[in-house]
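Lab notebook, page 48
Experiment: co-folding of the full assembly
Goal: obtain a model of how the components sit together before planning crosslinking
Operator: M.T.
Materials (sequences as entered):
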Amino acid sequence: MTTPAEFYETHRELLDKAIEAAAVRDYWSAYPESPSKSVYGEDAAATGEQAFRALLGSDFPIEVPGATGTISTERSPYGVSLDIRYPRGEPADLIAAARAATPVWQAVGPQGRAGVAAEILRRINARIFELAHAVQHTTGQAFVMAFQAGGAHAQDRGLEAVAVALAESTRIPATTTWTKPQRGGDPLRLAKISTVVGRGVSLMIGCNTFPTWNGYPGLFASLVTGNAVIVKPHPGAVLPLAITVQIAREVLTEAGLDPNLVTLAVEEPGDGIAATLATHRDVRIVDFTGSSEFGNWLEANARQAVVYTEKAGLNTVIVDSTDDYKGMLRNLAFSLSLYSGQMCTTPQNFLVPATGIETDAGHRSADEFGADLSLALDKLLGDPKRAAGTLGAIVNDGVLVRLTEAGDTPGVIHPSTAVTDEQFPEATIRTPVVLRIDAADEKTYTREWFGPVSFVITTESTRHSLDVFRETVRQYGALTASVYSTSQEILAAAREAALDAGVHLSQNLTGGVFVNQTAAFSDLHGTAANPAATASLTDSYFVSGRFFTLQSRYHLAGETNA
Amino acid sequence: MTTPAEFYETHRELLDKAIEAAAVRDYWSAYPESPSKSVYGEDAAATGEQAFRALLGSDFPIEVPGATGTISTERSPYGVSLDIRYPRGEPADLIAAARAATPVWQAVGPQGRAGVAAEILRRINARIFELAHAVQHTTGQAFVMAFQAGGAHAQDRGLEAVAVALAESTRIPATTTWTKPQRGGDPLRLAKISTVVGRGVSLMIGCNTFPTWNGYPGLFASLVTGNAVIVKPHPGAVLPLAITVQIAREVLTEAGLDPNLVTLAVEEPGDGIAATLATHRDVRIVDFTGSSEFGNWLEANARQAVVYTEKAGLNTVIVDSTDDYKGMLRNLAFSLSLYSGQMCTTPQNFLVPATGIETDAGHRSADEFGADLSLALDKLLGDPKRAAGTLGAIVNDGVLVRLTEAGDTPGVIHPSTAVTDEQFPEATIRTPVVLRIDAADEKTYTREWFGPVSFVITTESTRHSLDVFRETVRQYGALTASVYSTSQEILAAAREAALDAGVHLSQNLTGGVFVNQTAAFSDLHGTAANPAATASLTDSYFVSGRFFTLQSRYHLAGETNA
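Observation: model returned without errors.
Model output:
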């Protein structure tokens, strides 16, 4: 057995560094993103893949309170048979078990809880290859991306949440003294004790595309602030979170704690267990990543809980001018192609003035820009092997349906085509579709087309682009925005429009940084300033709603009772 | 003109000290609570009273957007004619003016806003005598209490909110650089800018009893985080907030800012302007102190806003044993009498075992405890002058009605009597009523009897008291709780019960600290852990919902575009 305090001592230096990194916000990472042997060891890749393979077609080894039978709902976008069976728990049993586990967890205190969380993350990192395969075959992310975004970066986001939660929940010291001078008498003296108390049972509802990256912040923020967490994965992406829960339970047990502080809640599609759990009176925190429809429903109906959502919106690029046209096109093509645009951060709407744009390669009309972007896509995705590595696979039929619908819409300038992957011939892989439409065609582009669908939208001018940007993001939300301009004036106007619209802004990205990526410890991901989210990873609002600080006070011995 | 940056420089040292004090949580105060000449100057008292008298029967000098006529709603519990007329603004105009004022305020940044806020507080403090009279004659607080709680302590709570808001909104640096090493190449380098953006128009709904103390935290927290604030006083206590708004507008104007960042919204009782404003789509923050009924309504209906409430509950004292019986009785009698129990923190329910309690004055049965408490009240309030100075006056008819109802209920052990004040013979002053009832009589004591009404409730044992405490506070909420016991075991059990019930706890207060008082920079006031409130003054949750941090990022010159 290792006590929570011992885990804290083990990871104290890391936690201190993480807290400092979240304050400084320069580049910092705790978990290497390179899957190379020099980093993770000679056998790590093979061992991880073996561990993943061993899970296929079997009963996933995990205990669930009130288990009644098993379910198996996952399907690999790469065509590999998964057939993993998970025990299903009854919502009432899951909640009862979470509540029963909480008092002892509360008594552990913030540092001990952060120590346990850091140990969970250490063991998650130790199984990063296994997890990468799990992410790849549930989300359709290509392996390297699954390793990075689903592995190292998700772990960094998890550690960031641990750090911010630990910092915020310890801002008021656990014990203090209060000494108030009294005129002509001994001072009044009190001892004061501050105790962090979790809000209540926490529910984390995972998504199909980024189960770990989007799931870890809420999971770890809730844990560290003293709550038990029920993890409800998307039926299409259970395994990455099942492994996570398994690891958490293993560490909790080793720390002498109740493993039911973290439980797995699986369901058949349509069971509606998320809604049942989220509206239960004892569930006091809900984290959700997914559709605007269900996210808005949760915000409206999970009234007994604080609800942190990350939904969807109209990610927008304002194209005005550039002094690196090639770099811009290469950057944009990659942003559209990465994981087939199945990121909540992928640009959808490109606003381009009808009069065209000025570039270092000369003036380009809106049509020419569209053609050049299409060429850049073809160049990036010309080699099937490289294309597969960038695009990953299409995660589910919903995306395919939208892709087909977009392809049948007038204005296609880059049609989507199928790509064959050597390693996984059954994989469903498609290149992005790009359409050219007019700013007047609001109906089309103010809808969110999650997946590899984007629009080159012709506006009257960059000023008009900024207006469209401001209005559409205000109304429909966005997780990302970017602008390309050589004019300081336009850049300033774009920054102002982004503040108005309430969205983070990237300017002139032409190199190795992409608008769809945010870095833990430096970039906030999402913001409640527009309708696309109520969560921002990871600011103090994201953690401070998860706990209360309760105080007690008493006279210190030696005080004169005036 | 003095710029916000200049105000920040002027008050920087104070703000730094306040931030540190909020972190250390020892005794600290910025505004002296003593009305003595040696502190505030020879003429301050007379000048302040003169300024207050000059306002009576006149049009209060303040501009209000969209003003249409005036209203006059206040009535002094001390019987002095007030007849002050305030201009009434239309809700739509107030909101439009607030919105129009916001963009420039946002651009000022957190430090400049904190500087302006600190200057507002400085000028409020300079008018502390005038404000004390205003508080006295609207709330019924006796003068010294009005000076302290309504003056210095309210200002301290305001500064605390400024400090916590400034600290939380600057945790993410305004500008940073991000440098990520690249294998075999120049690092990726980005500049990042973080901008604090207010959530939107803020509405502060004041209460009748503590317009400044309960109002300042929300007002200043919203201001510093970049929001315009509409101040809607209780119709019975307009003047203290009207003076506050007047001062705020004066400082804002002097800083070259739009005074409509802080506006006054008065109404006739029953106009329902608070509900209209609170549910307007552009009002995004609501602060409320008052009845559970309207507070719960706001939480349920002001869905577009983040809602911070301080409502009411069952403040409970668990009496088990004491080694300072006299001190305990004196302390409790004062707690019940201070401002006639018209504090949201005044104890209502005393849980006493039927078997009696052990004290340094011997065993006392529950009946004897009730009789001794009554005697202690009589002793404290025996001298009319001293009684008036402690009790203050009854704030409104609602309190009188409950007092009469309680007096007509079986079990009265200390009847309420009228007290005559020499200085204000018209004042409505009453001593507290105390009733003795059984724990089975839940219907009576689980109702909140705001005012000088309390119950000695006989339980089976202290364990039973703790159960009643835990269950009633969990269900009905509480702002305070206290316990008297000489047993470490009972104290530990009481602490645990308080954590379970979600309420702050005072232990064995027998001296000059009272359960109804909380000190800024040290004690949290209220907690969202039970139904009595969603606000806690001032933790990070109280400020972090009032703003968003939006980021922009761009490549730093010299980067290789990989």
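Interpretation: The mean pLDDT of chain A is 97.
Next step: discuss with group before ordering constructs.
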